[in-house]
Amino acid sequence: MELTRDEEAMLHGKYGGAKQKAMEILLALGKIYGASRMIKVTSAQIAGVSYKTIGDAGLEYLKHMAALGGRVEIPSFLNPAGMDTEQWEELGVPEDFAKKQIEILDAYSTMGISTTCTCTPYLCGIRPAEGEHVAWSESSAVSFANSVLGARTNREGGPSALCAALCGATPLYGLHLEENRVARLIVRVEGKLENRADYGLLGLLVGREAKGRIPAFIFGENTRGAGGGCPKTEEGCGAGCPKHSISESKLKYLGAAMAASGSVPLYFVKGVTPEWRVDEGAEEIVVSQGQIMELKAKLNEADEADLITVGCPHASIEELEEIAQLLERKPVKKPFWICLGRSVKKEAQDCGIAERIERGGGKLVADTCMVVSPLEEMGFSKTAIDSGKASVYLPTMCKQKLLFGKLEEILWK
Q1: Does residue 56 sit in the same domain as residue 121?
Q2: 52 and 107 both lie in a single domain
Q3: Count: domains in the chain
Q4: Which of 41, 141, 145, 304 could bond to 135 as cystine, CB 3.0-4.6 Å?
Q5: Domain interval for residue 330
Q6: d(CA 30, CA 14)
Q7: Rounded to 5 degrees, what angle do the CA atoms 199, 161, 165 make?
Q8: Cβ atoms < 10 Å from Cβ of 46
């Protein structure tokens, strides 16, 4: 691989042991994937944060890199941790787990990494522009950055994202290259999808069918135009306008579910996403509303839940407003977590949405996600969710039986 003078200096230890190790790893990855050189990246989003997922070995690695003097070169942010760092005792997180989790966050912080702890950095103001190269690692964040924002990132592993953060660069391969951002699966969606849960179910189905291919969606009548959607304002366009009929929240759930069920890092939606590139020989499939409802029925293993939890990926302020309105109609009686980034929680507190949710029995849980928290050690075994992504991981990672549905179907079970 061709390296710049600065990258050569990192490789030979001029900037310290941590950057040297990081560049060695990046160089090895580049050779594996046939990269000709590195490319500068403007931000890094780093997975491998919860003690539940990385354990003692991961903690020791982070401590080692910090002790070597590792300091990041670009704005760098963390994926969800295994607990809310301010409410862990109240929520019942075991003390030994909490101690290890705090050590992990301290190690990252020592390296200059912001302990944002969210899978939706784009809701915290970190929104790369179309064509901008970044090194993100959480699967749903990668999908959103590539698909909805039109940025360029591979799905980095936690260690490679950390290395990119330390060096400010990543190998130029995969989805950083325009020729690889082409769909080879066309998905025609019949019927009307009405809520985030429906889009998550669609994502689960298509993720399983993708088999390494980038999918391109055509939704019913929403087939006008490609790459940018309606030129009018939201108030001035028709109800059938694809640009404004599919919200970012729905796209977030769609991409997250595909990433979880089929490791899909990029997708296109005709008339909605900034890109639309489809191979002439692309296979075409149809997904019906019947298939979506059939999958929904299969996911429901429990008649009632001992925990209700949403925010996978982390909730937006618009989703919180929707939840607040529902709880004002009827409070919940069971534990109800809304997982979100801490900056979104602060916004909700400042505008009064948080107080409305708490009056209705909800709890805003920041920094973490139900998937990477120790639910089974906290006494939960049956969880109600509206997330396709969570439906993939909760049964295996947290030993949970599921009750799946849209918000109105799970809040009062």
Answers
A1: yes
A2: yes
A3: 3
A4: 41
A5: 300-410
A6: 21
A7: 125
A8: 28
Entry field: residues in the chain: 413
Neighbouring C-beta atoms of residue 174, cutoff 10 Å: 18
Q: At 63, is the secondary structure helix, strand, or coil?
A: helix
Residue 9 near residue 23 (C-beta atoms within 8 A) = no
pLDDT band for position 229 (cuts 50, 70, 90): very low
Q: Does 11 share its domain with 145?
A: yes
Long-range contacts of 342-346 (CB under 8 A, 24+ apart): 342/116, 342/117, 342/118, 342/366, 342/367, 343/116, 343/118, 343/123, 343/124, 343/125, 344/118, 344/120, 344/123, 344/124, 344/314, 344/315, 344/316, 344/317, 344/320
Joined tokens for residue 250: 């729905």
State the CATH number of the domain containing residue 400: 3.30.499.10
Q: Both 341 and 383 in a single domain?
A: yes
- Please identify, among 131, 156, 177, the residue that sits at the C-terminal boundary of a domain: 177
Q: Are residues 169 and 194 in the same domain?
A: no
End-to-end CA distance of the chain: 57
Q: At 184, which amino acid appears?
A: R
> Within its chain, how far is the Cα of 275 from the centroid?
20
Of 151, 177, 203, the domain-final residue = 177
Cis peptide bond upstream of 313, omega within 30: yes
What secondary structure letter does DSSP report for 376? G
Q: Could you tell me which of 207, 225, 77, 228 has the C-alpha nearest to residue 149?
A: 228
Q: pLDDT for 264-314, tens place per residue?
A: 999 999 999 999 999 999 999 999 999 999 999 999 998 899 999 999 999
Q: How confident is the model at residue 243 (pLDDT cuts 50, 70, 90)?
A: low
| CB contact set of 227 (below 8 Å; sequence gap of 6+) | 273, 274, 275, 276
Which amino acid appears at position 38 of this protein?
M
Q: What is the pLDDT of residue 370?
A: 94
By percentage, how much of the chain surpasses pLDDT 90? 91
Grade residue 240 by pLDDT with cuts at 50, 70 and 90: very low
Model confidence band, residue 221 (pLDDT cutoffs 50, 70, 90)? low
For residues 161 and 23, state if they share a domain: yes
pLDDT value for 302: 87
